[in-house]
Amino acid sequence: MKKLMLIGKTGCGKTTLSQSMQGMALVYRKTQAVHYSDWIVDTPGEFSENRRFYSALMASCTNCNIVGFVQDATAVGCIFPPKFASMLNKQTIGIISKTDLAGANIERAEKFLRWAGAQTIFQTSSLEKTGITTIIAWLGHRQPVPTYPNQENMSQNSLPQGVSPRESEE
Ligand SMILES: Nc1nc2c(ncn2[C@@H]2O[C@H](COP(=O)(O)OP(=O)(O)OP(=O)(O)O)[C@@H](O)[C@H]2O)c(=O)[nH]1
Ligand SMILES: [Mg+2]
User: How many domains does the chain have?
Assistant: First the structure.
């Protein structure tokens, strides 16, 4: 079972993704500090935005197998420096978030993530629950059992939705 650390800009959707992957209700909560759960480490966006926090990021990922760079599909910029993955010395994946929004540009987001060094890219929407099961399966975890009594979400969660990860052609 692989442990995943999520990093990315403030508001890009790390916490929502973490909740979605664990079958939890989606509740907005600004991440103030590194949050450790069973197999996901959620980080505050500020840690990825300010270079002076990079050492904290590196310390936080020591017990993780995978680092997930989260890139909002609607964002016109990217906070990850080129080849950022090599600095963390971990296997990294790119996760495109908010693909459900009208302004989503998957191609642009994928380009940013590849520049940062992510080799496998996943497209997700935490709200529509697309791409979530694909990441969970890729990490080798069981699909989450929703912890909230919402019939619609329960049936959505059990569907094998999502797109296949696109392996790097490099
Ligand atoms: N439409 C849409 N909105 C999303 C999605 N994921 C997250 N959001 C929204 O984006 C906002 C920020 O989400 P968070 O998950 O708190 O972002 P974060 O990356 O954890 O932010 P920090 O904790 O500040 O670093 C919230 O209002 C979410 O509802 C998504 O897949 N689709
Ligand atoms: Mg958060």
Answer: 1
